[in-house]
Design goal:
disordered N terminus; 2 domains; 5-stranded antiparallel sheet; Hypothetical Protein Ta0175, Chain: A, domain 2; alpha+beta; 3-stranded mixed sheet
Length: 375
């Protein structure tokens, strides 16, 4: 669902590495002078040429030597701090175990939804419960997994080390279809704001595209019932829950299966519920809240202070407009706090092309928001 940075080890600075660090910094930049902040060397450099590209090249070589350089601006000067760095080793069996457990909980949740006694009557044919259960589980795991692999793939392209996805199981009927999503752990910071933007935005884009594919299939198998029929079933003791549907979901459903009239509603097939979950996951992650994907994207655009203000403002807007459940979930993530992801180079600006990508970001967010958000 979102990713964290952390759990890597910054070791105490060995003095024997100072000369190596100084030689490496001097190879790429003109060093005006240096000082120590505690045991950490701080090199004051003179900007020269394309700072972003030069620092990226420098950072790649530094990381190959297990050193992490941090480019900052201090009192009008550019400084580079160099720290020894050792990524934390993780148990490779844990992601696999969590995947298996989560797949089981999602299967059970799918079985419960596929066993709906009214589904055959709504669809007009018998329902293969086992096949529907399997399709449900595969679709939901694919959406969540593809979202996280989007982060993973783009991180690999940029040379940023990350863990495999850690799926989070949930009791069937709780969470989103038997899972609380997944998370990957970033084991080192991105080099610059461009990489922070790319890694943060890649997950929602990949997950969004996977969700659209599932929705295109689900629209063809979703049923339509009259309000009169729902009332009759309610009188027989059945209980129904109204689910506000995202904008794009409404568009796809109305295109492939338009309602006969105002007194009809959609009776969601289990696959349609998976698509609904995918849209909600994408919308939640795109909100500019601290550790969520949207938080990383907006922080790359406007910086940490303004990003935090936007986090609070976005949650307040959801509360005001009445979508309190989504607001509470986002507020929970905001209150979790934690150290925000900062790139090694937080001086170089975000590229113009990525600033323009904010338009795509906003369009996807709007398409994934439930319709009641608009009134």
């Amino acid at each position: 669902m979102f990713y964290y940075y952390g759990n890597s080890v910054y070791t105490p600075y060995p003095l024997m590495l100072f000369e190596e660090a100084r030689a490496l910094v001097s190879k790429y930049f003109y060093v005006l002078h240096y000082e120590f902040d505690g045991f950490v060397p701080v090199f004051y450099i003179q900007p020269d040429g394309d700072l972003k590209s030069k620092f990226k090249e420098f950072a790649l070589e530094a990381k190959s030597r297990k050193l992490l350089p941090f480019l900052r601006k201090s009192n009008g000067y550019l400084t580079i701090r160099v720290l020894p760095f050792e990524p934390k080793r993780r148990n490779p069996k844990t992601p696999l175990l969590l995947f298996v457990v989560t797949f089981i909980t999602v299967l059970i949740d799918g079985f419960l939804r596929a066993s709906d006694s009214l589904l055959p009557e709504v669809l007009g044919h018998e329902v293969n419960v086992l096949l529907t259960m399997l399709a449900y589980a595969l679709a939901l795991m694919a959406i969540v997994g593809i979202h996280e692999m989007g982060h993973k793939i783009v991180s690999m392209i940029h040379g940023v080390r990350t863990s495999l996805p850690y799926f989070i199981p949930a009791p069937p009927g709780i969470g989103i279809g038997g899972t609380f999503g997944a998370v990957i752990f970033q084991e080192e910071p991105p080099t610059n704001k461009d990489e922070l933007f790319d890694i943060g935005f890649s997950g929602p884009i990949f997950g969004f595209l996977a969700t659209v594919v599932v929705m295109l299939v689900a629209a063809r198998v979703t049923g339509v019932v009259s309000l009169e029929q729902l009332k009759a079933w309610t009188e027989q003791g059945y209980v129904f829950v109204y689910i506000p549907t995202p904008v794009l979901m409404d568009i796809i459903l109305s295109y492939y299966k338009p309602l006969p009239g105002p007194n009809y509603v959609y009776y969601l097939h289990p696959l349609a519920f998976v698509a609904w979950a995918g849209f909600i996951i994408t919308a939640l992650n795109l909100f500019p809240v601290w550790q969520l994907d949207g938080g990383h994207v907006i922080r790359a655009l406007v910086g940490p202070k303004r990003a935090r203000l936007l986090s609070i403002a976005g949650i307040a807007v959801l509360f005001i407009l009445g979508y309190w459940m989504m607001a509470l979930i986002l507020l929970f993530f905001l209150m979790m706090g934690g150290k925000p992801i900062e790139p090694l180079d937080n001086v170089s600006p975000l590229s113009t092309s990525r600033k323009l990508m904010i338009i795509v970001y906003l369009v996807i967010l709007v398409l994934c928001l439930p319709a009641p958000f608009y009134g």
